[in-house]
UniProtKB/TrEMBL annotation:
This is PEPTIDASE S24/S26A/S26B/S26C FAMILY PROTEIN. GO terms for cellular component: mitochondrial inner membrane peptidase complex. Its main location: mitochondrion. The active site is at 47, 91. The keyword Hydrolase applies. Catalyzes the removal of transit peptides required for the targeting of proteins from the mitochondrial matrix, across the inner membrane, into the inter-membrane space. The keyword Transmembrane helix applies. One of its GO terms (biological process) is signal peptide processing.
Length: 171
């Protein structure tokens, strides 16, 4: 191998290393953003009808307000399931610690309601479609530590693009 070929090979190797390092830095940056700042959530299932469709909705969620205690009744949150830890759920917050929450126990079968006070360090979550949702009515109040983010914007499908604000709670 000649000296000229060695120099060319060195230049190519340096450029390849530089590009690889740039890609690695970009991927690390995206990981930090996705883990600590914003994430895109793919939503499916009947529990949040009519707010979200059965399949194919995407929403942008921010991942810091729940760490600052800025989640309240009416917010839509993403959280780890308390009964299936590998599953991520999307639900609406109905009450935070200290709030009294009245809920229909079995909406398919009766109008019987119960009232609970949300314990310290917990939130009460329900799906918007109370007839087909596994939520706090089934597994009780959810520890605040299971929260993973708060929904901000619905980004797909394009016709539904927009801010996801708080839903007014019935008093």
């Amino acid at each position: 191998m000649s000296l000229r070929n060695l120099k060319e090979l060195t230049i190519i190797a340096k450029e390849a290393f530089s590009k690889t390092f740039l890609v690695a830095k970009s991927l690390c940056f995206l990981h930090v953003i996705n883990t600590h700042v914003f994430t895109v959530a793919s939503l499916y299932g009947p529990s949040m009808l009519p707010t979200f469709n059965l399949t194919g909705d995407w929403a942008l969620a921010e991942r810091f307000s729940h760490k600052l205690g800025k989640v309240g009744a009416g917010d839509i949150v993403i959280l780890k399931s308390p009964v299936e830890p590998r599953k991520i759920m999307t639900k609406r917050v109905m009450g935070v610690e200290g709030d009294s929450v009245t809920y229909v126990v079995e909406p398919k079968n009766s109008d019987r309601t119960e009232t609970i006070v949300v314990p310290k360090g917990h939130i009460w979550v329900e799906g918007d479609n109370i007839y087909n949702s596994k939520d706090s009515r089934n597994f009780g109040a959810v520890p605040y530590g299971l929260l993973r983010g708060k929904m901000l914007w619905k980004i797909w499908p394009p016709k539904d693009f927009g801010y996801i604000g708080k839903k007014e709670q019935n008093s």
